[in-house]
Amino acid sequence: MPIKIQNDLPARKVLEDEHIFVMTERRALTQNIRPLQILILNLMPTKIETETQILRCLSNTPLQIEIELLQMESHTAKNISEEHMITFYQTFPQVKHKWYDGLIITGAPVELMDFEEVEYWDELCEVMEWSKTHVHSTFHICWGAQAGLYYHYGIPKYILDKKLSGVYKHYLINEKSRLFRGFDSEFYAPHSRNTTVRAEDIEKIPDLKIMAASDEAGVYVVGNQSGSQFFVMGHSEYDIDTLAKEYFRDVDKGLNPEVPVNYFEDDDPKKQPTMRWRAHGTWIYSNWLNYFVYQTTPYILNEDVVTFTDED
């Protein structure tokens, strides 16, 4: 939440230069406050687990948030009861007349398929096009990030020689971005994917900037200039045991997976995983909500708004 101070307090400029949210008395007197409206498009097969992980990340803020869950009408979820989907999820025709402060598009286990081969691709494209006029800021995760980059900017994905699985060290490229407020210069994040995007393709697009990366895992966070689109290649929302569940699932299937990198103690699957990314997972969602949603979204959501950048 913002620090409310007198309009001319000398500390104001110093704090603002550090990207600390300072609200002057003048602004506080005219501020209208309402709950943030966040829509989550959950494409993961583990619906309940993914719901819990993302909600946990979103909850670490004093902001009041109202959540709605969205499913693809053109796809039938196989690992969850129909009752759960009917009770808690909406379809796109039920929400497309609404406006939202934020949209989260999750990953999906379809990355080895061409985008156009995914059964709900046309519907997802409709959602992503709608988001440009009905959502203030969108946060894409893993395959959802690759799908967003492909749809909005034509950036292709590439199949890796082997699955990228583990917890990797990352560094900040755009250290002054509000998205990384509170971050250390180096931080860890989990990845679990078979495909990637390449920096050289992204760097050709003037509207995009690579904000964080890893020597081993490649491009990590990409944002557009206005702050209305973020693309995060990893899974900062993962629980401590999520990679372990995926690893042992693949072992049971006889896929002979490699042990996730930098995850189990001593890289031994018989030992417990080490949590290295909880602070990062908390901060990236909190900063997105605070700086790119709460501080810039209009009070009436269907109003035109001025674009916002990290330099503003």
TrEMBL record:
Coiled coil start-end: none
Highest taxon, organism lineage: Bacteria
Catalytic activity: L-homoserine + acetyl-CoA = O-acetyl-L-homoserine + CoA
GO CC aspect terms: cytoplasm
UniProt name for this protein: Homoserine O-acetyltransferase
Keywords, comma-separated and alphabetical: Acyltransferase, Amino-acid biosynthesis, Cytoplasm, Methionine biosynthesis, Transferase
Chain's gene name: metAA
Signal peptide: none
Family stated for the protein in its record: Belongs to the MetA family.
Primary location: cytoplasm
Keyword field contains Cytoplasm: yes
Listed pathway(s): Amino-acid biosynthesis; L-methionine biosynthesis via de novo pathway; O-acetyl-L-homoserine from L-homoserine: step 1/1
Protein purpose: Transfers an acetyl group from acetyl-CoA to L-homoserine, forming acetyl-L-homoserine.
Subcellular location: Cytoplasm
